[in-house]
């Protein structure tokens, strides 16, 4: 009788064309991580169909926040902590676009999605709809870090790293979702948390 909200990932879309990605877009995972999330979604559909489970899937985009020890912001803070005054080098070109979602907003959306749980296993994108380049996001981290910190990019695209992952958030908005934490504010929070824990 439980309602199941399953956290998936935008990685299932793979290399999507530029523009907000709607939930009905074809999935074509570009990485092992995305492939495993697609498998998990198929299992959810199978269990909903065969056993009558009520499921909703939320495809999270770039979730970040204090306590998350992975992804760009965490990695960059770690590099800045040991770089002193030297610029740190990140992989990629910096032009890659991402849709950053604060962990508190992700939790709020997961809670709202419970109302969608049924045997059809509906999908909702978990994002803000705001495209931010990795270069711009890294700049926000460096600014929050202070002390003249800076980041540069290798210019070499990383394997399994799509150039564009930004959500069409129409369905989430229809559920009443509205992001409460803007990216610059959330990054300042993460940097403060990182420095305090170190």
Description of the molecule:
This protein is of the alpha/beta class and 198 residues long. It has 6 helices and 10 strands; from the N terminus they run βαββαβββαββαββαα. The chain has helices at 32-51, 71-83, 103-113, 134-145, 170-174, 183-197, and strands at 3-9, 54-60, 62-64, 88-90, 97-98, 100-102, 123-126, 132-133, 151-153, 164-165. The strands form 4 sheets. Strands 1-2-7 form a 3-stranded parallel sheet, with helices on both faces. α2 packs across α4 and α2 crosses α6 (183-197). The longest helix is centred in the N-terminal third of the chain and has 20 residues, at 32-51. It is globular and about 60 Å long. It starts with a strand and ends with a helix. The mean pLDDT is 94.
Low-confidence stretches: none
Helix/strand order, N-terminal first: EHEEHEEEHEEHEEHH
Q: End-to-end distance, in Å? A: 44 Å
* Main sheet specs: 3 strands, parallel
Radius of gyration: 18 Å
Helix content: 25-40%
Report mean pLDDT, rounded to a whole number. Answer: 94
Structural class: alpha/beta
Placed side by side, the strands forming the largest sheet appear as 1-2-7
* Count of helical stretches: 6
């Amino acid at each position: 009788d439980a309602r199941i909200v399953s956290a998936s990932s935008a990685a299932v879309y793979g290399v999507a064309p530029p523009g907000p990605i709607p939930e009905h877009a074809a999935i074509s995972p570009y990485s092992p991580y995305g492939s495993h999330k697609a498998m998990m979604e198929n299992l959810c559909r199978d269990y909903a169909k065969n056993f009558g489970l009520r499921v909703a899937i939320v495809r999270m985009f770039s979730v970040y926040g204090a306590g998350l020890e992975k992804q760009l912001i965490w990695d960059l803070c770690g590099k800045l902590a040991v770089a002193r005054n030297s610029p740190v080098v990140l992989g990629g070109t910096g032009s890659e676009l991402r849709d950053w979602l604060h962990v508190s907003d992700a939790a709020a959306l997961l809670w709202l999605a419970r109302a969608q749980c049924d045997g059809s296993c509906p999908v909702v994108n978990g994002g803000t709809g705001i495209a931010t380049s990795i270069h711009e996001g890294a700049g926000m981290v460096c600014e929050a870090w202070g002390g003249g910190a800076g980041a540069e990019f290798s210019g070499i695209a990383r394997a399994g790293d799509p150039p564009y992952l930004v959500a069409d958030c129409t369905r989430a908005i229809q559920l009443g979702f509205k992001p409460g934490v803007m990216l610059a504010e959330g990054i300042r929070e993460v940097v403060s948390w990182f420095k305090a824990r170190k």
